[in-house]
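Our collaborator T.R. sent over the components below with a one-line note: 'Predict the complex.' Nothing else. No constraints on interfaces, no templates requested, no preferences about which chain binds where. So this is a plain run: every listed entity goes in together, and whatever single assembly comes back becomes the starting point for the next discussion.
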Amino acid sequence: MSEPGTGPSGPERRDPPSPEIERMLRTALRPIEPPDSLSGRVEETLSAVTEAAAEELSAWAEELSESELAALRDPRNWVRPVAAAAVGGIAGGALVLVEMRRRKRSTGFAALADSVRSRTE
Amino acid sequence: MAERAQTSIPTGAAKAEMDAAFEQLYRDRLRDVYSYSYYRVGNHHDAEDLTEQAFLQAYRHFERARRESDGRPLRPWLIRIAHNLASNYHRDKARKPQSPLDNSDPIAAPHGTERIVEGREELKHLMANLENLPDDRRDALIMRFALGMDNREIARALGRTDGATKVLIHRAIKQLEQEMAADE
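Returned assembly:
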């Protein structure tokens, strides 16, 4: 990522670029004012995103009673969901493996052979 | 309704403060993100899309960025988001074959240099050479001259060291100067 020759005694020290090219760059690369419509568009999108997030949070919290919220805050109750997530993850992984093996079996010549076999049986 | 909002969002005050800070960043930096996007994609239509996407991504990660910025300005982080989006834009465009309809679209023309430099031949020449620079050199010059970023900010936006960025910019200007001289 770094450019070679970054030392202060490199050729850059002895050979500075002309100020003229920097002046031209400043003139050519002027900041571009965004169109007025863009400002409104971005604000609308951001408002929609924040409202959707707030509504989702609100609906989620409203579904839970006080006792459920208190139970959720208790770390002793985190074991079961974590275990469930782990079991779910393992099951999901197993499904993916089965699917991958199935696909591996049923591609290219293997798929053609399977198809021929099923028709002749 | 207010009661509902208070109970449903426990960090309401913190979120309001975060939203206000983001709004300030948005107002302060909209022109920077737009300018950078425009110089990277060369047309207003795609620059608008990129700017919108950049601010959406920034909003999603704003809280963490603030936490990790340690009080430093967030402009380099924001420009880095725009930089990555512009890179994705060019990568996707290179992969996707253009249809005749795409080719006939006037806003899809690369770099509207005519509009930027308003017919001044010398500057048009400069912009043409700028487009031919290696990506990192061109991007650093856009950040320096169009956005007025200093070496440290550019280094953070490009994920380089300050020293490497200083050399990168110097070499970019020197290359541009040599190519301009060679063309004369």
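Summary for T.R.: Confidence is low (pLDDT under 50) at residues 1-10, 103-111 of chain B.
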